# Entry
Amino acid sequence: MIPSRVARVGVSATSVCRCSTSPTTLQTAPSFPSLEISTLSSVRPKNNYEKLLVAVKSQKIQFTAQDIYSICCTISQTKSVLGLRDDSDFMRAIGDCFSVTDQSVLNPFQLNTVIKCLKVGGILVPKPSAVVPTDEDAISPQSLLEVLKFMAVNHVRDERKMKEVVKAMSNILEEFTTSELLDTLHELGNLQYAYPFFVEQLVKRVLASGEELTTMDLSGMFKALGKVRGVRPATMRRVFAEMEKKIGDMDLQDYRNVLEVLQMHGSTFAKELRTLTNAGLERVETMDAATLLAFLKVFALVRYDNRIHIDIYGDAILDVISDLGETNLVDAFVATQHLDLLSEEFFRVMTTALLHYMANLTPQYVSTVADVCSRVPHDSSEIMSALLQRVAQCVRFFSPVQLSRVVEVIGDYPPAKEDEFLVMALGKQCFLRMEVMDTQHCLPGVMRGLASLGYRDPAFYVAAVQLAQRYGFKSFSAIEGSIIGLTFTPDEVPPSMVKIITSNIASLAKTLSLAEVRRAYHYMTVFHVEEDYVYRVLATRVLQFVKEINSEVPEDIQVLLQRGTMSTSR
# Structure
């Protein structure tokens, strides 16, 4: 019960607890008209609203945990309409009130809602730890299940407490009903439980219970087993066999549950995938986009070999592609490219759907979409133009890995070179983040991409070589991008840097292909390298590919062999 002084700031009985499962009753004082928090977006009496905020910020209102949950629901539902989430003083006051309330009255889902709402508002509330009941009278299937649900909902995975719960469950397993056994499997799957013996014991009890299990029960159990570490495939196949008996009754959610597991386990369940695919053919025309996408993602992952099935599911998703959200649409774009489904018409439909999201495309998907466009032979100028605009907008928001991938992909797109502002912006951001980039994977791609785009800052390439030099060059490709960038302005390259490049090329000569030897020789001539030893080792490498010098041998190779021979004779 909230003190009556809450009413003096105009909070009605239905407002604070609109989202609550057990509303708290408030008495509205006659001095102020009733004001509902949840209706402030449409009716905002200025005086009452301001008095409400002042009262909350000064903590004159003593809210209970249930009331704070209701307010957080309202804030989450109205988002920025009320502006409460952006009011740091208001959110801080709510957080302070919540920290002194009895939080045990909230279930795990309500508690998680409050914590997430406060976190979005910039208030960090420590997550309470799960308490495993120790009193024999308090131990019951439901109380132990609540502990697992608490950890799953609040993303608090405590291995020690899970062991305590499982040990307590083992002692009272006879008291569990079938539904409680299924709930236990579900929660252990969400927590990615690492000891499969107990889980397999639960499965045996469920299947031996003799109760009629629905397809939702079986598919949920199959999904939970897929998440638990170390479960034997034989146990999962046994569950699937039970589900196969009722495969005609499966709904779309059942299909998605099974496909999610097949996606996690690859080709381990190839036979089960074929069974599910054949069953799905009978209702493929009525499947929603999410289910069809799940099929295509599994097909791409396990390299499904039935081309007819792939084409059928691919054609079906094309009709409902507009139903997919941004993330699923990008996943579909990637999956269809892997499955070689992107015909010209298919590609046009997919890119048209993607263009609706392009203005606000999530930065992590930019390189993914560009990579797919670079792998198909169709005209992608429209979507690539939109992607380049999005890159220019997001260039400061990319993570180092995302930035390196974007630069590497669009470096192979010639029209990107024409946008000098974009090239300079990418080069500047790469320079700023160079120190936190992976020198084995990210940095070489960045060097190649910027060199392909024509970025001409020698200081950038010099710094990149010096950074990579600390960890050593594992291959010629790791250094070649920097060398190409330095060849744009060879007169500005410090002599010490030329020596570093020369020595690294000489040390890598034994691993070079003939084409790489030719390129390395070209770079040496651009830098006017005079050290004989580098030409000698390159010529020695060439002799492993060229056994006889004749007119078919390229001229630059002949010159290299001649120079290498001359340096040997000295």
Summary: Confidence is low (pLDDT under 50) at residues 1-45. Residues 131-250 form one domain. The longest helix spans residues 555-569.
